[in-house]
User: What shape does this take?
Amino acid sequence: MKITQGDTLEWRRGLEYRGGTFHFRKLMEGEEGGIDNFSLNLGRSSHDFYSPRHRHNFEQIRFVLDGELSFGRDGKMTAGMVGYFPEGVHYGPQTQAVESLAVVLQCGGASGSGYPSRNEVKGAMDALEPFGKFEDGVYRRSEGVPGKRNLDGFQAIWEHINQRPMVYPKGRYPTPILMDPTNYAWGSVESSAGVEEKLLGVFTERRTEARLMKLTKGASYYAKGRGLYLVVSGDGTVSDAPYRAMTCAYLKKGERAMITASADSLIMLFGLPDLSGMTLGVLSGAAAPEEADTAQAAE
Assistant: This one.
């Protein structure tokens, strides 16, 4: 098990290949180069942030803490809402009327395309910079440089890291799935007195999951299974470690931990997909590359 205290982490500039301003706190990350790599970030988007309509070859779950996220025809997310953004499915453009604060999980999905680390992305950007420029979410190659002239920023980065064309997986859902937890009922958790849950969704055959959990003061919950437990509010302990708002606990497959609340607590569970038996780069249900697309991947 690994634990981070999110309120102690520094804010860093992120998504430099997009338009506008975005800062993040890195709450937790997986193992670089693994098919099941992931990142969980607390992101702050300024009112000038812009991301063109695009798709990506990994999965995302967004949880809005404050403000509003607008995705054009795909709808808006306000504080408290949770969104699942499937791989291979277009969404956006994303714009900001006001500053927003959201937790974002990004992880390799059922296609087996994996997810690059922050260090890999930065290294690819540095390597590509002499041959073009990143502008409004698009990588524009300089005159005379081989390759497609205009390419989505993340796609250019991914292709440099992997040294092959990006092939987008077929979408398992037609659109992003936006969920309002206030419309869900709390349900009791078996063998856990004082614990209730809202199962928001389980996605694809690899079982990516979003779940809210509520613990009353003095209640305990035995956490297990590969996932990220993010404390939204409350105080208590995870095993012997203290938790408070923005504490994140990462449990690997086979690990267990006792969560005990010393005050009423709200916890968001990001259940990570089970990609066991898969090989990085082997796509399940892949679509042919589409040369016409110039904005298709990334956050």
In short: Residues 282-299 have pLDDT under 50 and may be disordered.
